[in-house]
Amino acid sequence: MEEGKRLAGKVAMVTGGASGIGAETARIFAAQGASVVLCDVNAELGQSVAGGIAENGGETIFRELDVTNEQQWIALVAETEERFGKLNILANCAGISGRDPKDLVQQTPVAGGMLEDQSLENWNRVMEVNATGTFLGTRQAIAPMRRAGGGSIINISSICGIIGSFANAAYHASKGAVRIFSKAAAIQYAPDGIRVNSIHPGFVDTPMTKPAHSNPELVQIRLEATPLGRFGVPRDIALGCLYLASDDSSWVTGSELVIDGGLTAK
Predict the structure, then answer these.
(1) H-type helices in the chain, by residue range?
(2) Would you give the end-to-end CA distance of the chain in angstroms?
(3) Is 189 in the active site?
(4) Rounded CA gap, 22 and 92, in Å?
């Protein structure tokens, strides 16, 4: 392995790769030697990220993927294995908050509205993208990873999957589902050498958190809750993904990596 290339020779798929944590994870994976299949529903942004990776010498392709569509998953995993010969890493980074996309500035601490005001449609959509999307990706990755002799699946949950808050209750439920799902999958597929772990970010500056972080009052509340005194950036989380993707974490499975500036330690 080339010195400094922690993922040399590996093939990785990253969902939600058009922006935020997913985009930075794809960049770091490629910089560390992985061939990266970058996926997102936003083709324009996704192709832009993939283009930037290629300009920096990384090997990547972009494919449009709706993580809630089982047939798209089946086709893309098959294409990945056919093109690159294997699949070693899956980072399930795609996710939504459940906040009304028209709310460009969040006005109250209650992101997405109070529970009694939420619709069944909103609940189902958040669960479908965040939880079912993670399930579908993980399920489709098992067979090719088994053929590759093992692999690493990294599921992005949240501190909202561990503790309660004023956030969308559906978001909490979906991220809690990702957390426990990851542990169950880890136990089931440990005999195949397939590791499954979850990552739990705190408050990170991403396009998804921009409405809240555009409100100075909410910024103050969130910063005061974070002992290290700053918001995370996508790189903070992507480096955690790199650790779990690499052989450095070969004895780590069923774990939850909390990256939150100390928020949940209080």
Answers:
(1) 20-31, 43-55, 70-84, 120-127, 133-147, 169-189, 210-213, 216-225, 234-245
(2) 41
(3) no
(4) 8
- Quick one: CA dihedral 74, 245, 15, 93, positive or negative? positive
CATH of 11-265, one of 3.40.50.12780, 3.40.50.720, 3.30.1640.10, 3.40.30.10: 3.40.50.720
**The pTM is what?**
0.95
Task: Name the pairing type of β-strands 35-40 and 151-156.
Answer: unpaired
Alpha-carbon span 74 to 87, nearest angstrom:
13
Per-residue pLDDT of the chain (266 residues; tens, 9 = 90+): 345 799 999 999 999 999 999 999 999 999 999 999 999 999 999 999 999 999 999 999 999 999 999 999 999 999 999 999 999 999 999 999 887 777 777 777 777 778 888 899 999 999 999 999 999 999 999 999 999 999 999 999 999 999 998 778 999 999 999 999 999 999 999 999 999 999 999 999 888 778 778 888 888 988 999 999 999 999 999 999 999 999 999 999 999 999 999 999 98
Residue with tokens 């109070």: 114
Catalytic residue chosen out of the listed positions 29, 62, 123, 171: 171
Q: Is 12 helix (H, G, I), strand (E, B) or coil?
A: strand
Q: Where are the domains of the chain?
A: 11-265
Give residue 139's identity as a one-letter amino acid code: R
